Amino acid sequence: MTLREAWKLGKDRLTEAQVPDADLDAWYLLEWCTGVNRSHYLAWPEEAISPEQEEQYRQTLNQRERRIPLQQITGEQEFMGLSFYVNEHVLIPRQDTEVLVEETAKFLKDGMSFLDLCTGSGCILLSLLHLRAGAEGTGADLSPEALKVAAQNRERLGVKAELIESDLFDKIEGAFDVIVSNPPYIKREEIETLMDEVRLHEPYMALDGHEDGLYFYRKIAEEAPKHLRAGGGLFLEIGWDQGESVSELLREQGFSDVKVVKDLAGLDRVVEGYYR
Ligand code: GLN
């Protein structure tokens, strides 16, 4: 089978299965299985792919037809310019979350300590440590499978970080200069409306913000004061319509200078507050 035939096969199969961006996804999978880049393809479209490559390519198409996200097939996602390993036990890092990392990094200085709650793949924890190698970072997650992924990413990126299995603050001792989190925040009734890739293949526990979507913000806002040093900052990713309600939760718990930061699409994305 030639490269051209392979791409055509992939486009047809994924289009038939109503996969969004079928052409592009077929291309990415072909590129991933053969190592052939775009300019090579344009120069030699009639080059044959090996039987092993064809077999692997067909298997990845089977997976994508079942709406398994591309990132779970290839096992990686870029975030903050770094490559993270991902699997079905963690939320795939989203570009939207880069705003949270950038906002937190403005406050986080070398020598400070920080805690990343619901760390998942570790994308927030580890990219912050990549930016602030002199900071001391701890990641917590309830899921041991997610922590294994975070540990693999810690190894992959060669940074130092502590990882703790903990339901929010349950196993956390001591106080930090910064607490950051992108907790699950989708309203339960909205989960079934999400695209198949997310609804069927990303961890339910990474999406589910309970009835009103605010469950984790409430718990974090209540307990964070016990785990923040004087002058410490709390940085939370939020959904586009949660800016007001999460700001209010922080003010109720005595946080000051509470503000909402927008993402590149102009939507509310981060709420931050300080504990004096
Ligand atoms: N903190 C991780 C991330 O931002 C996981 C978030 C989650 O599971 N809700 O990707």
Automatic annotation (TrEMBL):
Gene Ontology biological process terms from the UniProt entry: methylation
Chain sites annotated for binding substrate: 182-185
UniProt KW Methyltransferase keyword: yes
Name the record gives this protein: Release factor glutamine methyltransferase
This enzyme's EC code(s): 2.1.1.297
Domain of life, source organism: Bacteria
Function: Methylates the class 1 translation termination release factors RF1/PrfA and RF2/PrfB on the glutamine residue of the universally conserved GGQ motif.
Residues of the Methyltransferase small domain: 97-192
Binding site for S-adenosyl-L-methionine: 141, 182
Gene Ontology MF, one: peptide chain release factor N(5)-glutamine methyltransferase activity
Keywords: Methyltransferase, S-adenosyl-L-methionine, Transferase
Lineage: Bacteria, Bacillati, Bacillota, Clostridia, Lachnospirales
Catalyzed chemical reaction(s): L-glutaminyl-[peptide chain release factor] + S-adenosyl-L-methionine = N(5)-methyl-L-glutaminyl-[peptide chain release factor] + S-adenosyl-L-homocysteine + H(+)
Pfam families, per database record: MTS, PrmC_N
